[in-house]
Amino acid sequence: MAQYFADIYEAVSSVLKGMRITFKHIYKKPVTLQFPDERQVMPERYRGFVHNDMTKCDSCNICAKLCPVDCIYIESEGKGKARMMTRYAIDYNKCIWCSLCTENCHTGSITMSHDYDHSVYDRRTLVYEFMDPTQETIPCHRATRIDMGWWVEPKEDKPKPKPKPAAEAAPPAETAPAPEAPPPADDKPAPGTPTPDDDKGVEN
């Protein structure tokens, strides 16, 4: 009999605990978003799907070379001023959102967007083609882009290097004093040395 009333108490108390949490949240602002009509606002530095502005891209291949998973595909044809980009694609199946491509893009064309929802039924559709070569190819050389009216990265005026300061004149080396000349020898012969006069006296 005691167990019967214990079970009733346990059931009622658990219901009241759950309802207390429910009533507590009734008067609070809801946090549920009605997706997809409502979407969460992502922070400014959020790393979403990579986006490339093709009006700025000049096919330098830096992003493709730095990509650790080789998910960026760039194709071009021609050489020099006649070089044209014919393909720029990103395989989001392999992308790891490391942002190495965006941090090293010298034109700022490739960026991390705030887009996070790319639900698809076929994984092959996650290979995004950013241009259609049948419609238009993109010039790669700077001079050609200027002639055709494409965007080019403005050149920054590099500050001229400051002239090196003239080397200070080295102080003149101190000249060693000249050695003193030895005193002149005495003209008088040393005692005991024969002289010409002595020779004459011997002959006489």
Textual characterization of the structure:
By secondary structure, the chain is α+β, with helices and mostly antiparallel strands. The protein has a domain at 50-147: Alpha-Beta Plaits, CATH 3.30.70.3270. The protein is 24% helix and 12% strand. The protein contains five helices and six strands. Strands 2, 3, 5 and 6 form a four-stranded antiparallel beta sheet that branches. A two-stranded antiparallel sheet has the order 1-4. A hairpin with a 6-residue loop joins strand 2 and strand 3 (84-91).
Comma- or semicolon-separated keywords:
204 residues; alpha+beta; Alpha-Beta Plaits; four-stranded antiparallel beta sheet; two-stranded antiparallel ribbon; 5 helices; 12% strand
Low-confidence stretches: none
**Quick check: average pLDDT?**
83
Q: Report the CATH architecture of the domain at 50-147.
A: 2-Layer Sandwich
User: What percent strand?
Assistant: 5-15%
Distance between the termini: 177 Å
CATH topology assignment of the domain at 50-147: Alpha-Beta Plaits
Instruction: Encode the helix/strand succession as letters.
Output: HEHEEHEEEHH
What is the number of helical segments per DSSP (H or I, 4+ residues)?
5
Helix content: 10-25%
How would a crystallographer describe the biggest sheet? 4 strands, antiparallel
- SS-derived structural category: alpha+beta
Round the Cα radius of gyration to an integer and report it.
47 Å
CATH class of the domain at 50-147 equals Alpha Beta
- How many E-type strands? 6
| C-alpha geometry | flat
